[in-house]
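Changelog note: in this version the structure field was regenerated for every chain. One regenerated record is shown below for reference.
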Amino acid sequence: MLSPIYELTFKVYLKAKEMTDIPQTQAGFKAKSVYYERNLNTMKNIHSINFIKHTTLLACSALLAVNLAACSQPAASDAASTTGSASSSATSDTAQIPNPWTGCTTLADAAALTGYDFTVPDSVDGYPDVTIAVLESEQLTEVQYSSGNARLCLRKAPGSDDISGDFNQYAESNAVDVDGRSVTLQGNDGQVQLATWLDGDYTYSIGIYREDGTGLTADEMTGLVKAAK
């Protein structure tokens, strides 16, 4: 069975043949030649056009099939994103990133983890809430006094590094002597917001953090330094 393209081509050929069956006179021969040439060109053009249409149709059909297959399932990135989101939601309550800090009830509990004692004030006026925590990987002890969003943070650890975790750039920095210890006081506008010092084999820091950015007076900060051992 002929394909539609070749069937159409064959019909055009037969039509052309009918039109070219004219008397073989000299004039008729010329007419036949003209008609034959014209119809032959027509047949070629029709065949070419139909071939292009047929090829284009096949290409479009193939492209449509591919698109339908792609639409039948989510893209890999979308699937991964969806899976990741679902996984995050499913594990957010059960498999959160471990907190590196260990909370302690007393300073004695902290000492059991770090191997050293940390002496600090029992309380600080204006900061009623006290929390104690240890960063075991650094053997760092932190005692935090807080009131709302304001907090006073005292730290101690073995070594000589800056353990404050405060990377602010302060306009003022002064070294003062506090009970034979060289303490660096940093702050802005005459107020002290950070104190750091070394004592023996240990490094210390005290930072004050308030929403309004205000600090302590030099006397208030050095008073805390004296109490921290």
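Spot check on this record: The CA atoms of residues 129 and 146 lie 5 Å apart. Strands lie at 101-104, 129-135, 140-147, 150-158, 172-178, 181-188, 191-199, 202-209.
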